[in-house]
Amino acid sequence: MSTENRNASAQRMFDLSGRVAIVTGASSGLGATIAEELAAFGAEVVLVARRVDRLKALAEKIGGLAVACDLSDLEEVGAIVPTVVEKLGPPEIVVNAAGSMFTEERAESEPLDALRRTMDLNLLAPFVLAQSAFPHMRDAGRGTIVNISSISGRVGLPGIPQASYAASKAGLSGLTVELAVQWARHSIRVNTVAPGFFRSEITGPLYENERSAEYLRRNTPLPKTGTAEDIVGAVLWLCSDAGSYVTGQTLVVDGGWTAR
């Protein structure tokens, strides 16, 4: 095969033209970067988050659709897919990138309200959105769901108390394998990407403090600072036909942190 033909084949494998993709947490950080990349490969991208001004600016930039939603409100989450179907058509790709921590208390002191908010946003919202997208993917005969988790769902991180956050992210991996098996007969693939530390709006203070920055460098085997762009390739692979035989997996992208 010529170089030209190999390049054309590779482009076809990653081509998302004509596919409607929903990306939550798309107003900033990893969610915004994922939305831009999916659009660059041809998808019609629906950007979902609370910060409307940021959503609209990015939607205008990439030719996407902005849908304002408080993802911790499960009734609002349930209204996302009907809105998308009405405006763009049925979704074939869902990327659950929204997530947050609501307390820095140690496990024995985490308030119940923070625990519930964490679970609603990080675990229940992705589940409800997947349920809502399911009938459309089933009818299309294909679909892919990618949940964005964290290495916190796989390993404890000394000095960073986050019990409810870790539980919610581990829950995403459990949800992933169950949905993957139940929905495989409809050619719906469900996977999780678990990033390690990378510079973002949320983690910025860790990199700006020399002590914590040194801790991150010391514990990351690859000699570079992670960025959102380092995570996006894995998401694109799982969303596209290049990953067409991959389902039920949690793909860790952490610069080797959990391999030590």
Relevant terms:
single chain, 260 residues, alpha/beta, seven-stranded parallel β-sheet, 10 helices, 7 strands, 48% helix, 14% strand, globular
Your description of this structure?
- The protein has 260 residues and is of the alpha/beta class.
- Helix content is 48%, strand content 14%.
- It has 10 helices and 7 strands.
- Strands 3-2-1-4-5-6-7 form a 7-stranded parallel sheet, with helices on both faces.
- Helix 6 (112-140) links the parallel strand 4 (93-96) and strand 5.
- It is globular, with a radius of gyration of 18 Å.
In short:
Helices cover 48% and strands 14% of the residues. With 260 residues, the chain is α/β, with parallel strands linked by helices.
Into which percentage range does the β-strand content fall? Answer: 5-15%
Rg calc: 18 Å
Strand order of the largest sheet: 3-2-1-4-5-6-7
Structural class: alpha/beta
Order of helices and strands: HEHEHEHHEHEHEHHHE
Biggest beta-sheet profile: 7 strands, parallel
Number of helices: 10
Q: State the share of residues found in helices, binned by percent.
A: 40-55%
Number of beta-strand segments: 7
Low-confidence stretches: none
Q: Could you give the distance between the termini? A: 40 Å
Overall pLDDT confidence: 92
What general outline do the C-alpha atoms trace? globular
